[in-house]
């Protein structure tokens, strides 16, 4: 994915970065995966665009 | 020597009758048959009854001496009742059945989804009806017994099938030994474990899922309405799914998924059943309520179909042709549609009114239906019994989200069986006005029922042959159409003409429906006189016209009955 005009500002990205890290720690190792899948579904619904979600899936699968 | 059980099966609510076996020594030497049907389940008997309606005799052979063990299929859809109406047993089904239309899904004690199946006031039958399969079989058997064209043989087990040149040779074992039947056609309606399918080494396509379910029928008094109940990830059965349905005669169906790694034998151990059913009853607030086991079995979800239902002189139908998951009530309900489709298409081939291409069409239509069901049912199965880690994670995420987020709740929908539309059927007329209609059932669709008056519906008047619905306010059918209709009948094709929209009986029509308020015309998208629909003997639409003429009627009948 390349950046688009709707991407986060650096400050916004840093905020998301910290918030996600802290939420993962709060969820704990047992529930991290469930938490991330819930987050992905909520994000997909907020995106309201199946093809953008597919592009994000493809991007996340790279370089694992 | 075939020795079927002669002890009546045990049941709390159903009094099994043990029938006498049909023995070859008590009958004259067997001549060659037109149709032999192996299996007397819903698909086999509906096929026999449909064939008889079209004037074709059949021999039904069934290995047992009594109706099937346990309730098995318990939920019947509206379209199934419409088909059963055609073979004369819908009134008995409705009289003894429990109608319902709501389904509920629960997670962590909260109802997270409620589905209400729509009911159109134009429909005679409700969306869903619960009846135990033994009753259905009894009603169908009574209808078969009353039909002189059906030769019903209890205690006759097919042991060998040999394809000869243009016919099949069927070896049948009985309590006094074997005999052989020669038949033009053998319908294999011998169920999900079809011995004929195995012996012919036919491969099915699709998927089998690993999760096992216990199906248990218990007698218990629960003050709950007739609604489907689904419980996800209950505390007593973590990660798994439990289903409940009310049945007639004080019986409840409880289906629950087994923990991974547990065998069916372990699951059916009495102490295991006792503990789990107690736990389920406690979870729904009825701890300690007395109950008795009637019948139990183990089931696993499969979405499999043969890619072709016609093999030489052998035709597969119902569960012998495909194995579909029970979630969404797709077993018997699909079997009725198979049997109705097969009944008329085989009859027309046997009677020489169409060529074998009609059976190829039957197979294409029903395999298409099975594939559509498999695609749809697969979604439900993947939600009910997630087949992999990824699917399980997603399902668990949806359960968790559903407590607060409405957008995921439709994923609980269990996609009830619905009739397949034969939109791309070879029988659909190419030169009609199908695409010009803005309402009404399209090419290949089952008909829209219409309420005509108290206890009087359109579908009561259709079926048993081709039906031409002709919309007119004229006093008579046009001469040119009457000529085509007469010539068609002279060939031996049953064709009924129903005139719609005239105050007086229309000359040349078998029946006139006044449709004074124009409601039937509205539902069929008809705005002017001269429009028409042609329905196949299974009531599905194969042609429709804004203005019908003799040439196009002739062409549609030719398409519907390929040489």
Task: Tell me what the structure shows.
Chain A has 2 helices and no strands. Chain A is an all-alpha fold. In chain B, strands 1, 2, 8, 9, 10, 11, 17 and 18 form an 8-stranded mixed β-sheet that branches. Chain B has an 8-stranded mixed β-sheet with strand order 6-5-13-14-15-12-16-19, covered by helices on one side. In chain B, strands 24-23-22-25-26 form a 5-stranded mixed β-sheet, with helices on one face. Chain B is globular and about 75 Å long. In chain B, a hairpin with an 8-residue loop joins strand 13 and strand 14 (241-247). Chain B is built from 13 helices and 26 strands. In chain B, helix 8 (331-350) runs antiparallel to helix 9. Chain B is of the alpha/beta class. The chains are: A mainly alpha (64), B alpha/beta (563). Chains A and B meet through helix 1 of A and helix 10 of B.
Roughly how much helix do the residues of chain A carry, as a percent range? over 70%
Arithmetic mean pLDDT of chain A: 92
Global structural class of chain B: alpha/beta
Give a count of the beta strands of chain A, DSSP E runs of length 2 or more. Answer: 0
Name the beta content range of chain A.
under 5%
* Fraction of residues in helix of chain B: 25-40%
Question: Biggest interface, which chains?
Answer: A-B, 8 and 10 residues
Largest sheet of chain A: none
What is the mean predicted local confidence, pLDDT of chain B? Answer: 96
Identify the quaternary structure here. heterodimer
- Tally of DSSP β-strands of chain B: 26
Question: Gist?
Answer:
The complex is a heterodimer of chains A (64) and B (563). By secondary structure, chain A is mainly alpha-helical.
List keywords for this structure.
heterodimer; A: 64 residues; mainly alpha; globular; B: 563 residues; alpha/beta; eight-stranded mixed sheet; 26 strands
């Amino acid at each position: 994915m390349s950046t688009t005009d709707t991407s986060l500002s650096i400050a916004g990205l840093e905020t998301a970065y910290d918030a996600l890290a802290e939420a993962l720690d709060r969820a704990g190792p047992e529930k991290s995966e469930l938490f991330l899948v819930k987050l992905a579904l909520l994000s997909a619904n907020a995106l309201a665009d199946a093809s953008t979600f597919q592009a994000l899936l493809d991007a996340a699968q790279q370089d694992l | 020597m075939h020795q079927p059980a002669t002890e009546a099966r045990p049941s709390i609510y159903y009094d099994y009758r043990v029938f006498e076996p049909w023995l070859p020594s008590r009958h004259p030497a067997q001549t060659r048959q037109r149709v032999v049907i192996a299996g007397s389940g819903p698909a086999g008997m509906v096929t026999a009854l449909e064939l008889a309606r079209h004037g074709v005799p059949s021999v039904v052979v069934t290995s047992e001496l009594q109706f099937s063990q346990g309730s098995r299929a318990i939920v019947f859809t509206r379209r199934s009742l419409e088909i059963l109406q055609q073979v004369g047993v819908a009134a008995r089904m409705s009289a003894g059945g429990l109608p319902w239309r709501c389904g509920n899904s629960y997670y962590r004690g909260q109802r997270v989804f409620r589905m209400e199946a729509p009911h159109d006031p134009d429909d005679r039958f409700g969306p869903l009806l619960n009846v135990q399969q033994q009753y259905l079989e009894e009603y169908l058997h009574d209808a078969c017994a009353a039909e002189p064209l059906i030769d019903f043989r209890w205690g006759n087990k097919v042991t060998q099938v040999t394809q000869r040149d243009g016919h099949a040779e069927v070896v049948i074992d009985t309590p006094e030994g074997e005999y052989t039947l020669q038949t033009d056609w053998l319908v294999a309606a011998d169920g999900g474990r079809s011995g004929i399918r195995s012996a012919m080494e036919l491969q099915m396509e699709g998927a089998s899922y690993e999760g096992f379910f216990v199906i248990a029928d218990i007698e218990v008094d629960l003050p709950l309405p007739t609604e489907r109940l689904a419980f996800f990830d209950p505390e007593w059965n973590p990660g798994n799914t439990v289903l409940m349905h009310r049945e007639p005669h004080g019986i409840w169906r409880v289906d629950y998924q087994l923990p991974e790694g547990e065998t069916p034998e372990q699951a059916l151990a009495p102490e295991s059943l006792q503990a789990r059913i107690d736990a389920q009853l406690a979870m729904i607030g009825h701890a300690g309520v007395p109950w008795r086991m009637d019948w139990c079995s183990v089931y696993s979800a499969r979405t499999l179909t043969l890619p072709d239902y016609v093999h030489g002189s052998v035709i597969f139908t119902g569960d012998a042709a495909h194995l579909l998951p029970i979630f969404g009530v797709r077993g018997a309900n699909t079997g009725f549609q198979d049997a109705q489709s097969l009944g008329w298409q085989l009859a027309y081939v046997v009677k020489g009114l169409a060529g074998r291409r009609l059976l190829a069409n039957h197979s294409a239509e029903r395999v298409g239906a099975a594939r559509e069901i498999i695609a749809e049912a697969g979604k439900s199965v993947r939600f009910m019994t997630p087949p992999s880690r990824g699917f399980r994670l997603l399902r668990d995420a949806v359960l968790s989200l559903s407590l607060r987020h409405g957008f995921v709740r439709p994923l609980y929908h269990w996609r009830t069986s619905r009739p397949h539309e034969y939109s791309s059927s070879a029988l659909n007329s190419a030169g009609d006005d199908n695409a010009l209609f803005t309402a009404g059932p399209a090419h290949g669709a089952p008909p829209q029922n219409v309420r005509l008056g108290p206890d009087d519906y359109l579908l009561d008047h259709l079926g048993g042959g081709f039906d031409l619905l002709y919309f007119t306010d004229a006093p008579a059918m046009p001469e040119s159409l009457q000529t085509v209709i007469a010539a068609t009948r002279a060939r031996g094709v049953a064709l009924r003409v129903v005139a719609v929209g005239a105050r007086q009986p229309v000359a040349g029509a078998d029946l006139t429906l006044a449709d004074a308020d124009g409601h039937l015309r509205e539902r069929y998208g008809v705005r002017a006189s001269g429009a028409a629909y042609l329905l196949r003997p299974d009531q599905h639409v194969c042609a429709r016209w804004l203005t019908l003429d003799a040439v196009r009627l002739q062409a549609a009948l030719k398409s519907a009955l390929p040489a």
